[in-house]
Design a protein that fits this description.
Elements (H helix, E strand, L loop, with lengths): L2 E5 L1 H10 L6 H10 L4 E5 L9 H10 L4 E5 L3 H10 L3 E4 L19 H13 L3 E6 L3 H9 L4 E5 L1 H5 L3 H20 L3 E5 L7 H7 L3 E6 L1 H10 L1 H16 L1
Parallel strand pairs: 1-2, 1-8, 2-3, 3-4, 4-5, 5-6, 6-7, 7-8
Pyridoxine-5'-phosphate binds next to strand 8 and helix 10.
């Protein structure tokens, strides 16, 4: 079985457009779980641009499946993770100016800090995944840092603009997954996965434990929910004036 982790950051992004209370990412998490999500993923960014501390606290109490907290190695965020105790933490690189996570962690360049954080999280009872490119040196560095899991960045596969490039990126992912498993690591994947590219990925890449998918699911939810939302408002208006 491959688990689906639904990333609900974008529900909070819409809420933060008005800095109000709707839509509530916690409600989105419950609906996702009731419809088969095997886990809920949120990224508590240092600038709190979408998910906030209160969301994470509430999700910890409400989520019935598994809460996966994406996070940087920033000391304040690590402290919050150790207190909240998500079921899983996924360490990601983070730049304030980026629109979304742009690539995998450089575990080699930051090995000392990453190892420290993996150890702190483990002592707090949290299993840690490292979001990395599916390449040999990062896989080996992830194992040396004490990670149990890696999440392969699938953004290059998702963004490939020719069939040839897509197949090349798939080959890299398949080889990376084999190496990671031989190294003793469990493998997740995510970023840029959508309704067109997920099937082929799973057909080729065996042994994946979990896919984390956000943007395409929230985008589809907006459009599939549009008809109900408009007709409900229309009914209110017509009922009021007739
Ligand atoms: N996995 C990681 C580590 C991410 O940072 C993100 C984006 O927050 C995702 C998965 C989900 O990516 P997408 O929103 O493109 O589906």
């Amino acid at each position: 079985m491959v688990r689906l982790g639904v990333n609900i950051d974008h529900v909070a992004t819409i809420r933060q457009a008005r800095k109000g209370i709707e839509p509530d990412p916690v409600a989105a998490a419950v609906i996702a779980e009731l419809n088969g999500a095997d886990g809920i993923t949120v990224h508590l960014r240092e600038d709190r641009r979408h998910i906030g501390d209160r969301d994470v606290d509430t999700l910890r109490r409400v989520v019935r499946t598994r809460l996966n907290l994406e996070m940087s190695v920033n000391a304040e965020i690590v402290g919050i993770a150790c207190k909240v105790k998500p079921d899983q933490a996924t360490l990601v690189p983070e730049r304030r100016e980026e629109i979304t996570t742009e690539g995998g962690l450089d575990v080699i360049a930051h090995r000392v800090r990453i190892k420290e954080v993996v150890t702190d999280l483990r002592e707090a009872g949290i299993i840690t995944s490292l979001f990395i490119e599916p390449v040999g040196e990062q896989i080996r560095a992830a194992r040396d840092a004490g990670a149990v899991l890696v999440e392969f960045h699938t953004g290059r596969y998702a963004g490939a603009d020719t069939d040839e490039a897509r197949q090349r990126e798939l080959d890299v992912l398949v080889r990376g997954a084999e190496l990671a498993r031989r190294t003793g690591l469990r493998v997740n994947a995510g970023h840029g996965l959508n309704y067109d590219n997920t099937f082929e990925l799973l057909k080729r890449m065996t042994g994946i434990e979990e896919l984390n998918i956000g943007h395409s699911i929230i985008s589809r939810a907006v459009l599939t929910g549009m008809a109900e939302a408009v007709s409900r408002m229309k009914t209110i208006i017509e009922t009021a004036v007739n």
